[in-house]
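User: Predict the structure for this protein chain, please.
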Amino acid sequence: MVDINRRGALGSLLTGAGLAALPAAAAEAAPQMGLLPAKQTSGPTWTKGIEGQRKADLGDGTFLNPILAGDRPDPSILKDGDDYYMTHSSFDAYPGLLIWHSKDLVNWTPVTTTLKTNVGSIWAPEICKHKGRYYIYLPAKFPNNNTSYVIWADKIEGPWSEPVDLKLPRYIDPGHIVDEKGERWLFLSGGDRIKLTPDGLKTVGEPEHVYNPWKYPDTWDVEGFSPEGPKVMKHGEYFYMITAVGGTAGPPTGHMVIAARAKSLAGPWEDHPQNPLVRTVDNSEKWWSRGHATLVEGPTPGDWWTVYHGYENGYYTLGRQTLLAPVTWTKDGWFEIGGGDLSKPIPKPKGGKAGPHGMALSDDFSTDKYGVQWNFFDPKPGEHQRLTRANGVLTLKGSGEAPSSGSPLIFVNGDQAYEFECEIEIDPDTRAGLILFYDRQLYCGLGFDAKNFVTHQYGIERGRPANPHGARMLMKVINTRHIVSFHTSSDGGKTWKRFDRGMEVSGYHHNVRGGFMMLKPGLYAAGKGSARFKNFKYRALD
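Assistant: Here is the predicted structure, written as structure tokens:
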């Protein structure tokens, strides 16, 4: 029995010795982007938030990036009166497109998840509001096929509509703008645009090319030209287009922010004389591959900011995180983006109101956090029916024979070191456990059935040592800056037994596997029966 996932790569099933591993390059390339980053012992550090999680607001009128730690890439932000709403690429995680809310651009709390139907891997959405209605435009990619959709709601909390197919193949990263005549447009990757109907739910005509993006020198180390993520806004007499070029990952110096302006959306577009406005120029910088920016006015009129994303030096496994930097408008009608490499505290935006930040990742399963915290990876239709919650117990019906052939339940976290634990009980002919999951070909973790443990490494099942605990145990995973250990207990955590297999996971990331995602904590159930999970606990470590 072999599972072939929709990307066409072979999965692997349980065997005594384990099947052939991933290509050796994927398994052994862990150290390629900075092996074992050390604990930060000097310089600024973050405030500790819920469960010790990283928090940007330092409490003294300054903040330290990221404003949203962990896999929150391609930020799209909407200013709606005194409120700010932001969403990000959610890729293969469903429910997807979680909306966050803030009053000060630094402290953020989740509002709702908006996309429940699996239409593909979601890249670089655009959240906007037009005539009282909220919209999210989203590109969805399947292998050898992609299109763009729109969902809408009359209230930010929802309910949100089912996705409407815009029948717009080939393009990614739509950016919404209304022109001087009140007509609606989507700007697209590559410098193209297409008109929308007044209700924003259909396209009109064919895409047209209106902008040739600024090109960097041929000697720069980049991943590729890849003009994408156009964000268009009106300020004064000009429309401004902010674009990402240089590729999203690859060399840390590749991804960058450029800008152009025009008095008409049709052009001609004039390139910013200081392009690129943001770029990592040295591997010693704190944040790598910085780009995909959107400008937004702060709580105080005339105080401008930008959100964009970047990889944290040494922590590709955390994905691209959301960063905030100040913007200054110049006398010639252009703007500059400050903050340097964002490794130091920055004065907070003026005005606004600091609220709570983040959310607890521990879960006693007494409330429904499906979609807000927990997501299935690339779920099949009806996958949510595997999940039931009652009396403080999460029951997950088995799927496939291993994480490679099922759909695990995962979540985003943003700490460099952390631990999580959970009580797990399984039915006969069932396997379950805790994992760190990138995709179906790259994950690690520990599972068990009633007689044996199941070790997961490099996305394969490598061994089945004896399980002395039987069908019920307490399991813990500790990830200390990419050094991972597993621990089990049969007496409720009074005593712990360290499992005899440790792992190093710094290479479980995009530059090894592709996909643009992060290494997410999670849990899984496989086989014919169900597994029951209780008292899930998360804690950030120093």
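The chain has two domains: 62-347, 361-540.
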